[in-house]
Amino acid sequence: MSRVSLGAELVFAKLILAADDYGRLDARPAALKATLFPVRDSMTPGKLLPFVRELAAEGCVQLYESGGRPYLALSHWEKHRGKSNRAQTSKCPEPPPGDPGDSRISARSTLGVERRTLGEVDEPTPPKQKATLFPEGGLTLEQKRQLAASPSLKDIKPSQFQHACAVVADWSASNQKTRVDWVATVRGAINRGWALEGYGGSGNGKAVGRGNTNYSQPRESSNWAAIVDGPQGSEDGAGETNGGKVSPDSGGAT
């Protein structure tokens, strides 16, 4: 046991307590988690299985398959169990012939089984997102809320936000520009200033030039609630522009 991690040693101790009279357990990932850590939500099957693999590689346990279901047997169980009475039979099938305590046999013959049967619950890899044109319906309510949480956009006006979305949407459609993260693109476009080009506001604001982030503030309350919670916060698109169609440089977005 000195060659395994502390986590694997803890799992091994729990396996000894949980094994049946023949040193065997149901090794389905969910079953192992429920047996060894029934109330510890932080220990998921995906976190538990690396410790089981570690024990198998060191020959501490044998992983095998019967009838398409994975099982686990503790090594040298018969040698250490003593002479106490036990059940006549085990609910788990007998492991295949061979000394499960031989780490060379265990690592070679059982790890392939556990990779097929246990590896299926490894923490899933998120699917790769596909780059798309700016959505025709505008940003979703959740995406607007993400932008509202950006410190750099805390002073933006609702009409400025709508104008910026319209400019970015026009840039995407006109140049066939695709992005994976349109929240980051809109944020970058506003911070760089080009998405606010042509914005006149509802008061006496003036249009700004490309790259000028010190845009004028019209006489309009800075109210993100109007974007994320009010009527404009619904899934209704980016709104109309105030300054007409704007065609920023193709390199303006991030």
Describe the structure.
The chain has about 250 residues and is mainly alpha-helical. The chain has 2 domains: about 5-120, Arc Repressor Mutant, subunit A (Orthogonal Bundle); about 140-235, no CATH class. The chain is about 35% helix and about 5% strand. It is built from 10 helices and 3 strands; from the N terminus they run H-E-H-H-E-E-H-H-H-H-H-H-H. It has helices at about 5-20, 30-35, 45-55, 75-80, 105-110, 110-115, 140-150, 160-175, 180-190, 225-230, and strands at about 25, 60-65, 70-75. It has a 3-stranded antiparallel β-sheet, covered by helices on one side. A hairpin with a 2-residue loop joins strand 2 and strand 3. The chain starts with 5 loop residues before the first helix and ends in a 26-residue tail after the last helix. Residues about 100-115, about 200-220 and about 230-254 have low confidence and may be disordered.
